[in-house]
């Protein structure tokens, strides 16, 4: 969206739909591999997966749908947050150690689960074993129950007992590396201690006596115990449901994510978070993360992690997508699925921009999710529903919901990432080359059409276009093939597209560019009118060729300026008048990030940055410098 002064905020809300780019140009260098932290390949296991696991009972009897999902749409499985709890509910207490699960029970139950249930009874699933790349996690009310809601007949004895159970579960219920599927499912590489504990214990359960500090200390105790039994699994948290850092002038950051890093940072291998765009959040209308808000959120964590721990720890985004409170807890509608879909691909594109920092990201698309049925109303975000749930249709058979369109859109994408750039921050872009094909992925963040001019190498013979957009009250995935070079394409409002460009010969990748990121030594600084806030960017590798961008994250009340004066090593920078995504007009505060080009000749080993706003209030949350040794990819 275009940056505006505080006085014109109300006007922008009224005319938000008119703020389109006249015409967008995207440049794609098919011969130039784009690497971030040494990673340049599209990893489908990491990004294109379902919030389900191969042996989930939801797939029993759904062989045809399962085969379509895995074989035709190339989807992996990503998360199992139920099996560990199911076995806990049946677990007896260790007769010699009150509060701990009996190890003999875990040994026997694990052997049956591993070798008999998965290894033998579910042998028909072994042909899909390679895509069963799941992480596991604990549910807060099962592992940290409040008085009166214990799920077992006895009470777990705290963090050490929970961690021991999780560690033993990882060892007993999964096969060892190198063993075949007949020995069980492959052992998960990631575990979250608790799923959304702050939402369950603090936001959603008013009056619970637990503090965030006590929940985080529980993470530490459980992590130490897990490692006694499984030193290889990567452990993370806090699996935060709503990372709204800027709330109350960043008090929520201090009380939650900063506190988590301070308390648990040394014990955690990764940070886990959830991101949802809301088409309607309660009665506040739109509340999106996609665009600059997601960038500002992740940059702030990265920067403080480096300051506090001396390292930038990676992320797992174990849930993300779109929601609409006004359509939830009701019968299925195609419109509700559209609100999920219009957020899923742009969020995926932004996570793809950090391949070195994302260990796994999982769109929250569950299987049948019958565990979530309430008062006869099925759960909201699920991949399968019964025929009778669609208007005018009948029968008990299970079919795909419209959420399958996310996987149909992405079904072919593969290959090596190549350098690409959009001149419109509201048209997100990524590109991959695989043999004779190039895949160009586009997402339109604007609620109006955007015409995109494609500037890529000549020689294209044809283009197969998948275009996911809204028609009437639901999504449509339109597919068509153009038997000539495609020079431009018009994205529908909030639509996404995958364009598979075909060439006569294999595309030769002859060059490689590498992206680097450098962090300021300070962060989260208050803003005072007319007073420069100084930051130091040290130990930067100067460039002889390429491009650089200064990334400035900030959060302010809606009526405050969003266009600061920025001076880099004594040179005033030209601050762009656009940032990516929504103006956030219905939120109590704006939280986003500006991406400001920096002349590479101004970059030194040690650099000074001065940022000054014309009015007081809010904070500069992060300052980083992103460089590419030749060219720059992104939303610029």
UniProtKB/TrEMBL annotation:
CDD domains the UniProt entry points to: agarase_cat
**Which Gene3D superfamilies does the record cross-reference, listed alphabetically?**
2.60.120.1200, Glycosidases
Ranges for the Porphyranase beta-sandwich domain?
A: 426-524
Where is each Beta-porphyranase A C-terminal domain found? 534-627
Could you tell me which InterPro entries the record lists for this protein?
A: Beta-sand_Porphyrn, BPA_C, GH
Superkingdom, taxonomy of origin: Bacteria
A Pfam family annotated for this chain is BPA_C
By what name is this protein known?
Beta-agarase
């Amino acid at each position: 969206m275009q940056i505006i002064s505080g006085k014109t905020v109300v006007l922008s809300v009224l005319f938000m739909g008119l703020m389109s780019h006249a015409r967008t140009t995207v440049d794609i260098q098919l011969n130039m591999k784009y690497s971030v932290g040494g990673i340049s390949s599209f990893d489908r296991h990491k990004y294109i997966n379902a919030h389900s696991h191969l042996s989930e009972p939801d797939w029993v009897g759904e062989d045809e749908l399962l085969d379509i999902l895995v074989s035709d749409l190339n989807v992996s499985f990503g998360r199992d947050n139920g099996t560990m709890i199911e076995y806990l509910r049946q677990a007896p207490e260790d007769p010699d150690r009150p509060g701990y699960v009996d190890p003999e029970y875990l040994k026997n139950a694990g052997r049956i689960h591993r070798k008999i249930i998965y290894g033998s009874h579910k042998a028909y699933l072994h042909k899909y074993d390679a895509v069963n790349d799941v992480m596991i996690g604990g549910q807060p009310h099962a592992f940290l129950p409040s008085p009166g809601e214990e799920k077992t007949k006895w009470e777990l004895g705290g963090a050490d007992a929970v961690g021991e159970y999780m560690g033993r579960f990882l060892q007993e219920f999964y096969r060892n590396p190198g063993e075949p599927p007949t020995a069980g499912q492959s052992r998960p590489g990631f575990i979250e201690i608790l799923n959304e504990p702050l939402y369950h214990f603090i936001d959603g359960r008013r009056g619970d006596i637990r503090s965030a500090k006590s929940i985080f200390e529980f993470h530490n105790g459980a992590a130490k115990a897990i490692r006694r039994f499984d030193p290889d699994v990567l452990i993370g948290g806090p699996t935060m449901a709503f990372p709204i850092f800027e709330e109350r002038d960043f008090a929520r950051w201090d009380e939650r994510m900063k506190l988590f890093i301070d308390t648990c940072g040394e014990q955690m291998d990764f940070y886990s978070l959830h991101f949802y765009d809301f088409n309607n959040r309660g009665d506040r209308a739109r509340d999106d993360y996609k665009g600059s808000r997601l960038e500002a959120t992740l940059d702030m964590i990265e920067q403080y992690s480096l300051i506090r721990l001396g390292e930038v720890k990676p992320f797992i985004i174990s849930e993300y997508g779109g929601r609409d409170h006004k359509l939830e807890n009701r019968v299925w509608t195609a419109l509700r699925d559209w609100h999920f879909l219009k957020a899923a691909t742009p969020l995926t594109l932004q996570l793809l921009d950090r391949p070195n920092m994302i260990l796994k990201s999982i769109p929250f698309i569950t299987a049948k999710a019958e565990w979530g049925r309430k008062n006869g109303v099925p759960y909201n975000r699920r991949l399968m529903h019964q025929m009778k749930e669609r208007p005018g249709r009948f029968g008990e058979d299970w079919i795909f919901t419209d959420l399958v369109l996310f996987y149909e859109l992405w079904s072919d994408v593969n290959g090596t990432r190549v350098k690409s750039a959009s001149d419109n921050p509201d048209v997100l872009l990524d590109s991959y080359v695989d043999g004779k094909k190039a895949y160009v992925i586009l997402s339109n963040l604007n609620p109006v059409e955007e015409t995109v001019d494609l500037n890529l190498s000549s020689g294209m013979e044809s283009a197969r276009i998948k275009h996911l957009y809204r028609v009437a009250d639901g999504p449509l995935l339109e597919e068509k093939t153009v038997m000539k070079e495609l020079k431009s394409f018009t994205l529908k409002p909030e639509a996404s597209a995958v364009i598979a460009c075909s060439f006569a010969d294999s595309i030769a990748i002859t060059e490689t560019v590498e992206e680097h990121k450098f962090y300021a030594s300070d962060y989260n600084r208050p803003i005072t009118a007319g007073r420069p806030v100084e930051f130091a960017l040290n130990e930067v590798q100067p460039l002889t060729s390429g491009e650089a961008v200064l990334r400035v994250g900030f959060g302010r009340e809606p009526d405050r300026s969003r266009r600061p004066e920025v001076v880099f090593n004594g040179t005033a920078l030209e601050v762009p008048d656009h940032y990516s995504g929504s103006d956030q007009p219905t939120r109590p505060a704006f939280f986003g990030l500006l991406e400001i080009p920096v002349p590479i000749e101004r970059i030194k080993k040690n650099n000074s940055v001065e940022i000054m706003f014309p009015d007081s209030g809010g904070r500069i949350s992060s300052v980083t410098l992103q460089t590419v040794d030749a060219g720059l990819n992104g939303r610029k």
